[in-house]
């Protein structure tokens, strides 16, 4: 009997998929590495009886690194990391013995079905698995006849059986785009990180960081936070004046009106307008308008929006949110949580997903009403060609998901129900007044139908005092008119939600990597997370970004990384050559690195202002950033002062290769 080896990305996924495909009749045993189990059952494949073996890896099997001698910081010039230093794939977690485990289970098998997560990283892991398994498989045919790829978006019976019945092949181009990103991030990140860590660590005793890291995505992410910090620091409040008017009619409560000129920045001008308005003790109604308006239901949920809401409304950091979302997915509660798409395909069973929620007491009433009245087709969103939007796949309760798991699941489910609901409708009433020569107005909203806000009440129309019944020509009595002094205020620190929006807009990272980059700048002590999930740069974070701006702004601006991401996407689409993109990008950053090394004294000047020399921290000797010899701090200062920053030329700019390669 022939053997089919099937490999998923995580042990829990392997177990769930095996249970579905075997209809609960599989037997399970631990693999040799202790971390992965093997689930076996009999069935048919390609019209013949076979033995299925379902197992998994634990994420990436391999990781990219430099060969041994190039990992010695003291003996290797960081400039060599751009081209001279060879790289190799090493086991990502040697303790797991993943390659040996895969070879033991794959030995003598006839077919491989790859159930890795369906994104670029998953495609890359497909080929890592194949590199381990193919040498020990039975050589019964070509790769096209023996290697298959399952495509799925949720761990449900329907989706898994459909994937098994429509097997394709792994995507080499998408895997190559991940290889390119890994190599670029390794070479560029390590070169800059090693150089600046060695240069500054020996000089200053209170840097608050053992590693001064640079990352092609990490650094622009930090740049957004520091840019907002700089705006706050440089903000100069400006005084302005508004006219506040209160009017009433009969025994009704006074109405506070908005001045049509909004505000003025000259007190005397403001006082002049007050005097003109005070010529009358009456407020005359010039017009009353009523307009029916609607508040649109949300578009279907993608990863970036989920991360934004989790941070701003649930108080959960992006990395933590993704960990919880992945757990909900592997347990079958939601569909795949990494997607850029906000549009459901025409054949998506929206009604079926909604019916799963009919008995959940939290929203059963709204769901039953929707099913009886007929669901509303979701708004048209964007189709990125990856996975459907994030959707609840089965009902759940707080007890089975835990606190944060339930809060995220509840939001995802309410959002999904809202996309199938009607828009919220309300009536907006606006009354325009004239007092003397000045115009004022007030407006209010009255709910007509709550629509989707029944299930997302936090987005509902707030209850307001009813607007007075009046018509053109009516007269109100002026209660008071006064000039009020106010001041413009500075912007606040960036929230995680705002940072995620900026990263998405500028193409920094992917839906999968955005949480990692934000987590990195927190872990490296470049920013701290304050109340309200606000990101406040540390002294070190601010100095680094200012230093990059001073030496070569492109190291911190999002433009160059955004261009790299576009090139990586072209590799994934088969429209650009892997080797050419890699070489061209490394050439650009190599030139930038050499310029950065030559310009480091100007960055050092900023460090001197913000941090204490190592001598002040009680350490008598310091290591020179260039020659690495230990010397007294005063000697380092002398060496540094001999470099004239004005002799350094301008930084190399980048030009990216044509997309037609």
TrEMBL record:
Record has Oxidoreductase as a keyword: no
GO biological process terms on file: DNA recombination; DNA repair; DNA topological change
CDD domains the record matches: TOP1Ac (cd00186), TOPRIM_TopoIA_TopoIII (cd03362)
Domain Toprim stretches: 3-148
InterPro entries linked to this entry: Topo_IA, Topo_IA_2, Topo_IA_AS, Topo_IA_cen, Topo_IA_cen_sub1, Topo_IA_cen_sub2, Topo_IA_cen_sub3, Topo_IA_core_domain
Gene Ontology cellular-component terms listed: nucleus
Coiled-coil intervals, chain numbering: none
Residue ranges of the region described as Disordered: 376-400
Record flagged with keyword Methyltransferase: no
Keywords, alphabetical: DNA-binding, Isomerase, Topoisomerase
UniProt xrefs under Gene3D superfamilies: 3.40.50.140, Topoisomerase I, domain 2, Topoisomerase I, domain 3, Topoisomerase I, domain 4
EC number: 5.6.2.1
Family: Belongs to the type IA topoisomerase family.
Protein name: DNA topoisomerase
